[in-house]
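Practice problem: predict the structure.
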Amino acid sequence: MSLNRRALLALSSVACWPGLVRAQSTWPARPLRIIVPFPPAGTTDILARALAPELQKALGQPVVIDNRPGAGGNTGSADVAHATDGHTLVMGTVGTHAINASLYPKVPYDPVKDFAPVSLVAAVPNVLVMNPQRAQYYGVNSVADLVRAAKANPGKMNMSSSGNGTSIHLAGELFKTLTGTYMVHFPYRGSGPALIDLMGGNMDLMFDNLPSALPHIRSGKLKAIAVTSAKRSEALPDLPTIAESGVPELRTYEASSWFGLLAPSTQPADQVALLQREVAKALATPVLKERLAAQGAVPGGGTSVAFAALIASETAKWAKVVKASGAKVD
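Answer:
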């Protein structure tokens, strides 16, 4: 048999097995890893763990959550920016991809150039919560009460957050700037540790993401004062917004958080497109829609282009807040 005839037979045999060709080029080829740049129990972690099982079913590979907290989300985000294995993603936030670049003198990644936005996963309001005993001590039952108490006790009230530069931190800084109040900021390594100290009475208040605070509000361990979004949350429909408080300085107040999936900028476009489609399908399933609604989150699922535009607009917005507040992280 000639060499040419052998080659033709070999090609014919491969053509008869298209599944084999597809299998060799299928992505993902091994487990996917979603890095959460914050500790467990915070909203970023909650959303990643809600999405992972749906992506796992759709993609046919395990989806592993890897918590890598530190530096307001910079540590874990940098790990993804520099990843080269083709199977590492990040659950980014308004902090890691719109605030930190203005807040930190040096960020170990470029939030635009080093990432390929996949899709917005969810948008959530923050909620102003207080330790119930501390709220009683200061006589706070409303936003107006809090403003009065903070002005009467400058520097005595303290405000915890999930870390410097997070939306939780900046929501508080925006509040302080608009009202001319001074509360001491204590950054933690994630919402979970911050909430523990808040419920334990070591902290007075926090502008936490609604999903992580909601169980403790419902159990009575935290006192909800108001939500930070422009509209009331369906999860707490009777709770007013900060803008509805009647405090003139706060009539334009709005500070919501968002969370989205991103890949390294080196990720092939077809793989990013596949991820976007599967995220959108997952977020449209009744199971995940109900799960997110119960957490007070509004599902995303839009295009990568729309997510990139959101990141750009939010970066400009929060740069102004950082500048006006004077907030800095060394």
